[in-house]
Structure formats: C-alpha cells, structure tokens
Amino acid sequence: MLGDKLLEVRNLRMYFRAAGSGFGKGSAKAVDDISFSVEKGQTFGLVGESGCGKTTTGKCILRMNKPTSGHIFYKGQDLATMTDSQLKPIRRQIQLIFQDPYGSFDPRQSAGAILKDAITGDGKRRTRMEIDAEVSRYLELVELLPSMADRYPHELSGGQRQRLGIARALACNPELIVCDEPVSALDVSIQAQIINLFEDLKAKLGLTYIFIAHDIAVVRHIADVIAVMYLGHIVEIMDAKHIFANPIHPYTKYLLAAIPAADHAEERERNGILPNDDIPRPGNAPSGCPFHPRCAHAAESCRQHRPELRDLGYGHFVACHMATASDAMDK
C-alpha cells in the first residue's frame, strides 16, 4: 500500500579508484552522498545525463556493486552491509530489467528455458506440467503468446525481447524492480506500449519500481516521484506532476529545455538556455555546487560551498543556494 516505506537510501557513496591512487584525489565519485526513499507501490524515477551516477545507484541497490559507504535499507534490512550469503534470500525480491535484454540472454536458450531457470531458482519442487503452466502465465502477463516459449531471443523483435526480460524478472516474484533504461533502445511507438505494460503490471501485482532513464519526458509518464541526478548528486526531488509546472534547480530546467519542441519559435527560445560546454567528468568534479560552471545564475557561494538537499515544502527537495521556500508550490 502506498505510504509504507519499502526502500531507504542514506548517504550512499560509490567511489571507483583510479589506477595508482587511493579513494581521494584520484577516485571517480560516481555516487557521492545521496539519500532518498521509495514507498511501497510507488514508481520512483531517477533521471540525468549519461555519467551522472543513476545506473551505479541502481547497481548498488541490487548489490551488484558494494557501496563505498552509506546504507540501503530494504524493509528495514541494510543491504549495504550484508554478506553474499545473507543477500541470497533477498535477491529474488529485488530484480533488474536491462536496457539491452538481448545481451542478458543466453542465445542458446529458448524463451521457455529462460523463464524456467527464473521460476525454479527458488528451489521449490514442481512438476514439468506446473513449470510449463507458469511459463505460459508469465508470457501472457507481458502480452506474449504462450507459443513463443519455443522461440529463441534472435527470433524475437526488440519489443518482444524486452517483454521477455520483464517476464523473467516477474518469474522471480519480486517486490521491487530496478528498470535500467528499459525503453531507450526501442522505437517510440513500442516505448509507449512497454510503459503501459509497466503500469498495468504495477496495478495487477502491486509492484514497486525504480525507473532509471535519461529522458525526463518518458519518466514523467510513469513515475510518481522524480529525482534528478547530476555528477553523482541528487539536485532535485519532486512529485512527477510538478516537473513541468515548477522545476526549480537550473539543471532540471536544462533537462526540460533539451526536450525537442514541435514549435520552431519555442524550440529556438528554449535552446537559448542550454549550456554549450561539456559535462565535467566524475573524477574531476568542481568544488561547491557541481553544476555551478554551467549555471548562468551561479554566485560566489555556489563556487565555494556544496548546497544541501533541502525540503522547500510540498515534498519538493532542491539542492540550490538560490532556491527558497516561495519557489515551491502545491498544485
């Protein structure tokens, strides 16, 4: 039920050491002290440019990466400090949907065999008939024909492969699913179908999603809450319905301005606020506010001190020295 906290991330850091250096000057701070929570039944969107740390955040939650420091509480248990043996019974509860499902499949296995491995991974004894029935059920859940169980990944279209990837995740009977750019490789029309499928499955099965993407317009259609990441930091968290109406952080405004507009005059006006420089590398992040070199409104305090993520009201959190409570609104 929405309102119960399922996942809480506190002060998460993930540093990757450069060759010949320690976790200091020579390290890339892929994720640098971020905190957020996800409620049961919620879709939490995590957006930002490539290299901002959003996928690394997802891998830390899945414990594909062991965090440098911080806590990841899943139903009260700290995943960040658990050993592999302690994590084993929890892994089926938190599943991943890949950006490129084809690369995650064994090309020698049929769709049915892929699902069978996921279904039987819990160790419970089943008859062959019971397994086949479950394979058919999961295929039908993602709107694929049961007869497709005999097909191999190369015999499926991109959209069908992504549906199979979703079915494989569902076959583990998860409560939380991390979706890592799950529609970015698909045609626009197929993207809409997959997003609708995600929403239908959420309603049917009571799922909770962390939806990672670089396209803020896509995330807005599926997310309840959106967190914007930049250079390893979360710079803004807000209700998804406020993202277009009241973005506060300059970087969020930049992401929205990067969405192509149908009207030529509007497109030209919006492009005027886009930074022309390249995004800094995580290993060479600027001091103070990480966005200040690209921000037209940066002051001296922005160059010297990193802003904290502050609650401005109505569940709207912003990490910007210039933001005030009057900038937030309730709609």
Quick description:
The chain is α/β, with parallel strands linked by helices and 331 residues long. The protein is built from 11 helices and 12 strands.
Please provide a written account of the structure.
The chain is α/β, with parallel strands linked by helices and 331 residues long. Helices cover 31% and strands 21% of the residues. The protein has an eight-stranded mixed beta sheet with strand order 6-7-8-3-9-10-12-11, sandwiched between helices. It has a four-stranded antiparallel beta sheet with strand order 2-1-4-5, covered by helices on one side. Strand 4 and strand 5 form a beta hairpin. Helix 4 (111-120) packs across helix 5.
First-to-last CA distance: 23 Å
C-alpha geometry: globular
For the biggest sheet, the summary is: 8 strands, mixed
Strand segment count: 12
Index terms:
12 strands; 331 residues; 11 helices; alpha/beta; 4-stranded antiparallel β-sheet
